[in-house]
Amino acid sequence: MKNKSIEYLWYIVVVLAIWGSALGGIEVTFIGLMSPYRIISILTLIVLLIKKIRYNLKLKKDIVNIIMIFLICIVYNIILLFFENSSIELVKKGLNYFYGILLIILAEEFITDDKIYDKTVNVIMANYIIILLIGLYEVCTGTRLFEIQATQQSQLNSIGLPLPIVAFYNTNGLAAFLIMFLPIIYNSTLLNKNKIVIIIKTLIVLLSIFIIYLTESRLACIIVLLFYIFLLIRNLKDKRKIIFILLSLGIGIVLCNTVFVEQMKEIEYNIFGNISRENNSIFIRSNIINNGLDSLKESFFLGIGVGNFETTVANYNNTYKLSLSHNFLMELLVENGVIIFSLLTIIYINMFIKIFKKTQKEKSDKIKNKYY
Fold it and tell me: Cα(335)–Cα(332) distance, rounded to whole angstroms?
């Protein structure tokens, strides 16, 4: 790109997106929280558009498609306002969607450039390591560097260690972040030729597994196990990769065996045990999800409108009067309906496919450089 400043703005956006919860923001009437990430991402978009206009450049086709899908989503939910009274919540929730879509738009613009993609991965990896080290510090000392979620600040996990939270609202948020970028860390480890770098990145992978299990996020524990099973099946013919996978998995199991066993026991106990349903987290969450799906069916799968999930589900035959979905995709589906949900999902699937193809291309290029 001719102007490096906009590239640096993109890297700042990536960092602020990771640390958004810790940095907080200012609550503004009608539009919700104005955080550093939101402000800088809007600024980056404005600079990008000015550059496009100045140099008479067209927006990429995928970006135009994303904007069109988001506009359809806005119009659709405005129509739903005639049936559901939630205009303030619609604006706030709609803006949340906007900032998420904005990150995808900026990603579409920047990561198609191979050099910027590589630098972006390095920026993410640097922040990933910082988060891991802070998580380890919290586990070892019981001290929180950020006070975001009061309910989990003093809680201990099943082996008596403090729960790592770092800069997220809860342990599930930390686990989701680590799970999301673990494949990238793993892939970059196998592609490296420097033995010292390989050892360091292997330790990062092991520390990631350790922190993920210490969060006691049951779904994350299962995903880690499935991730390694997938890797074993995919790399059966590569002895070097098999040794690395088995070694890291073996050490990870040894380090986290107690936590993993406790979590599996809790899942089994929640499903099959004689536990009171009032204290059964799996039953409570399934109850909320079922109520959400019932609301969706009553709307003829058209959706109940953005911002209406909490109020609708809380009053819909909900014994516990709980409304948080604990599942963003479920909330997106129930509020927007099947059609809009499908369109929005296509955006993320398309981005995932692009990143996957770029990763495979990077791997192929490194193999060619090695042998040819």
Answer: 5
CB-based burial, 162-182: b 16+ in 10 Å, e otherwise: bbbbbbbebbbbbbbbbbebb
Structure letter (DSSP) for residue 157: -
Spatial distance between the Cα atoms of 214 and 177, rounded to a whole number of angstroms? 14
What percent of the chain is helix, strand and coil (3-state, nearest 5)? 75, 0, 25
pLDDT, tens digit (0-9, with 9 covering 90-100), for 213-261: 888 787 787 788 787 777 777 777 777 667 767 776 666 666 555 555 6
Long-range contacts of 10-14 (CB under 8 A, 24+ apart): 10/44, 10/106, 10/110, 10/116, 10/120, 11/119, 11/120, 11/123, 12/40, 12/44, 13/37, 13/40, 13/41, 13/44, 13/103, 13/106, 14/120, 14/123, 14/124
In the beta sheet, which residues pair with residue 32? 28
What secondary structure does DSSP assign to 41-95, as a single string? HHHHHHHHHHHHHHTTPPPPHHHHHHHHHHHHHHHHHHHHTTTS--HHHHHHHHH
Residue 186 φ/ψ, nearest 5 degrees = -60, -45
Q: How far apart are CA 189 and CA 199, in angstroms?
A: 9
What gap in Å lies between CA 327 and CA 162, rounded to an integer? Answer: 25
Q: Which amino acid is at 23?
A: L
pLDDT tens for residues 315-361?
665 555 555 667 788 888 988 899 999 998 898 888 888 877 777 66
Q: Which positions ≥6 away from 120 have C-beta within 8 Å? A: 10, 11, 14, 110, 111
Give residue 99's identity as a one-letter amino acid code: Y
For residue 147, give the 3-state DSSP assignment.
Answer: coil
Cα distances (angstroms) measured from residue 122 to each of 66, 129, 181, 185, 197? 26, 11, 12, 10, 14
Which residues partner with 28 through β-bridges? 32
- Which tokens hold the place of 314? 């809380």
Q: Say if residues 40 and 12 touch (Cβ distance below 8 Å).
A: yes
The residues pairing with 162 across neighbouring beta strands, listed in sequence order, are 156
